[in-house]
Write a structure and sequence with these properties.
The chain is built from three helices and three strands. By secondary structure, the chain is α+β, with helices and mostly antiparallel strands. It has one domain: Alpha-Beta Complex (Ribosomal Protein L22, Chain A). A three-stranded antiparallel sheet has the order 1-3-2, covered by helices on one side. A hairpin with a 5-residue loop joins strand 2 and strand 3. The chain starts with 13 loop residues before the first strand and ends in a 7-residue tail after the last strand.
């Protein structure tokens, strides 16, 4: 007698992927997440491929994972996917101290963040 299956949080035409403990501040990660919000998946992958931000590689991996989840787990068509949501959350912050002059100390904060990407299948519009 196991647990009952939990109801899905997402709609039937959505899939998501979560990356936790990314070693970047949420503010910097949000700049990259803004690049892909609301775009088609192919366009978002191309933008991340040529982005100069270091964290873009991890965002791309998370997006590819969301696409794979949509294709393999939920039988969605990859060509009709858009990035419905890309939201960033705060993780833990490691605190370090660096000695400064005159016996003082400088505080160094090393923040982590979480990234959640939700992709949604939209019906292809017929071009007239």
């Amino acid at each position: 007698m196991g647990k009952r299956a939990r109801e899905r949080d997402l709609a039937d035409n959505e899939a998501k992927a979560v990356s936790k403990m990314l070693r970047v501040s949420p503010q910097k990660l949000n700049l990259v997440a803004q690049l892909i919000r609301g775009k088609k998946v192919a366009s978002a992958l191309a933008d991340l491929e040529f982005s100069r931000k270091r964290i873009a590689r991890d965002v791309r991996k998370c997006l590819e994972s969301a696409i794979a989840n949509a294709e393999n787990n939920h039988d969605l068509d990859v060509d009709d996917l858009i990035v419905a949501e890309a939201h960033v959350g705060k993780g833990l912050v490691i605190k370090r101290f660096s000695p400064r002059g005159r016996g003082r100390v400088g505080k160094i904060l090393k923040p982590f963040s979480h990234l959640t990407i939700v992709v949604r299948q939209v019906e292809a519009q017929a071009s007239a």
